[in-house]
Write a structure and sequence with these properties.
This protein is α+β, with helices and mostly antiparallel strands. It has four helices and six strands; from the N terminus they run ββααββββαα.
C-alpha cells in the first residue's frame, strides 16, 4: 500500500512514522454528493443484474473517480473529487419482421403478389369467418352472431 508523503507523520522524538488509516471507501462513496452517486450505483447495479439474468449476456458497471489538485498549486488546498458510474447492460435483440414493397415502393406486411382473401367478400362472408373464429375460441354461437355483426358494423374488418 502506498501513501502520499503529506499523509504520514513522523514523531521527531521517537522516529516513529505514523501512517493514518485510510477512510473506508464505502463511507466516502456513501457520503459523496449526499449519497446520490451511491444511490445511482445501487440502482444501476440492480438494473445490470436484471438485464444479465434476462438476456443471459455479460454486462458491467464501473465507478469512475477523478481527483484533481487545486488550481495554482496551492499547498494543502482542497481536492476536487468527481465520481460517476458507467453502466453497460446487455439489451435484448429486436426480432426482425418480413415486409414487402407495394407498387409505390412503400413497405407493407402483406405480399402484394397475393390476392387478399375476402377483400371483396360480402358482409355475410366476413361475418361467417368471424363466427367460425369465435366458435373455435369457445365463444357461445348465439353470442358469436351478435358479436360478429357488431364488430362488422363498427368497422372491425380484416385489414387490406
Amino acid at each position: 500500500m502506498s501513501t502520499t508523503p503529506t499523509t504520514a507523520h513522523v514523531d521527531l522524538h521517537t522516529g516513529v512514522v505514523d501512517v493514518p488509516d485510510p477512510a473506508p471507501f464505502a463511507e466516502v462513496l456513501a457520503q459523496h454528493m449526499g449519497g446520490r452517486v451511491h444511490d445511482a450505483a445501487s440502482a444501476e447495479l440492480h438494473q445490470l443484474l436484471g438485464a444479465v439474468a434476462q438476456h443471459r449476456k455479460k454486462g458491467s458497471l464501473a465507478l469512475l473517480i477523478v481527483v484533481e489538485p487545486p488550481k495554482g498549486a496551492v499547498e494543502d488546498g482542497p481536492l476536487s473529487v468527481a465520481m460517476s458510474t458507467v453502466l453497460k447492460a446487455p439489451k435484448g435483440e429486436t426480432p426482425a419482421s418480413t415486409y414487402y414493397l407495394d407498387r409505390d415502393g412503400r413497405p407493407t406486411r402483406r405480399d402484394p403478389r397475393q390476392d387478399a382473401l375476402f377483400d371483396d367478400a360480402p358482409i355475410e362472408a366476413r361475418q361467417a369467418v368471424l363466427r367460425a373464429v369465435l366458435a373455435r375460441a369457445g365463444v357461445d354461437v348465439d353470442d358469436a352472431d351478435g358479436l360478429a355483426a357488431a364488430l362488422d358494423a363498427a368497422g372491425y374488418r380484416q385489414q387490406q
